[in-house]
Amino acid sequence: MGGGWLAASGLAGIHHLGMENAELLGELAPLMADATIEEIWINSPTRIFVARAGRPELTPLVMSTQRVTELVERLLLHSHRRVDLSHPFVDATLPDGSRLHVAIPTVTAKHWAINIRKHLVKAHSLADLEKRGVISPDQTAQLLSLIMEGKSILVSGGTHTGKTTMLNALLSESPPDNRVITIEEVFELDPHVRDLVALQTREATHGGEGAIDLRRLVKEALRMRPSRIVVGEVRGAEALDLLIALNAGIPGAASIHANSAEEAIEKLRLLPLLAGENLPLNFINSLIGRVIDAVVHLEIDAESGDRFVSEIMSIDWCDGSMQYSHRRRRSQVS
User: Fold this and answer.
1) What is the pTM for the complete model shown?
2) Boundaries of each Bacterial type II secretion system protein E domain copy (predicted)?
């Protein structure tokens, strides 16, 4: 791959990966070292793409089918997960915190489809996010207040808006005596918390036994003396278990894919119905209104690709209905 295509950070940063990681990543090592690249995906050995500032680019990189297969096998050895005909999809976490997703034939038409979503922003506090322009000083103060008061927070946004980074920063502001339990499909959250237990789901064995899903993990977390329960991303029936846990008086946090703060609440209304327990909507509305205190919504600037919090929406349960109070950001912090 020609040096003219890679950013300088990609060429200069390869040695920072270390020999072991460079060997693990193979041909993708320069792309992983390039700080301007957010995501890498392989559609076929000759169609390898990256995204910079949210925009896709076809790279000149070409790999053989065997090299693509060997790459996935190396990456999955680290994560102790597998992909095969009986498990044609897999999610895993790479050593640097990047997220790997693989799909193989016959689910895909011909080639292995691979996505690596890089974990670029290393923000360990709200102050870090403020320095990067993700949040304003007023928003920093508001979010700190929510965390210190033990409020439950829903982080919303589209793909690549920085929801995981925001959750990490929020949780890192937890009082030192808090015991935080995080629950994810694959490990991504890594907050700076003194008393932290991280849980992730487990696939079934070849015999079809031993699977552990998000719903089970939320229930187990309740037995672990949590001060705060966190679900990395809610997108299914586990939303009901989380809401019930929060209703027991345990503060929590989660992220959800949505295009606005209000849409995040609308989506959270529907997800518990996937549990198949014939729940009335007014019960779910009441539950959400009583246990979710605020929604932090993230967006991406279309021109610069920068992430920022566009609004923080407070929620109050009053006279049998949810009342929203919006605090919108007038402009992005430069």
Assistant:
1) 0.85
2) 28-274
